[in-house]
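Render HTH tetR-type domain-containing protein in 3D.
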Amino acid sequence: MDTREEILKAAWNLFAERGFEDVSVRDVTNAAGVNLASVSYHFGGKEGLIQETVKLCMNPINEYRIKLLKEAVAEFGSADKVPLERIMIALMRPAVLPEECGVRAGLMLRLVARYLIESDYNIPSVSRNLYTDVFRTFAEALKSHYPDLTAKQIVKRIVFASGTVVYYHGLGKVAMQLSSGTQEDVGEIDREEMLSDVVEFTIHGFGGKPK
């Protein structure tokens, strides 16, 4: 692993655990075992490091979403012929199973939570462009199934659904314990079952009657 990757790995863990503000450049370089000037050399400073770390989390998930949808379109011939469930799986699977695109779920959750709490930080331009592609591509694909919804309404529902995944990653296991009335370990969340539940919930939650 080269110096740049060592810094990113250390930053990812520290930012997720303590937040952006509480972590100094020195904290990162000490954890990475590199000299202080390395952050300026590779990232231009702390802000550049934050942007690169966020990109490292966001981009693989959104790239995977677009890849899955493109595969479905290729299989069925056109976007309007892709079954609704396949579109929703393409949207949700990368967030439910981020390990499939090289992102650990626990760290993704903590980093996203920190990013939302400390919302003064801008989304990196490359990540912003990918999000634009995701919203536009999926809005177009979903429009054929929900003709009564506007593009704006569809995007809002995509955000609602994505929030459901993040929330369940964080509290799903605790909720299962509380609902069972026991402190016993309920085991790990079955991600495939979670995906199925989230997809079903999202299809019904989009509102209106699917075509």
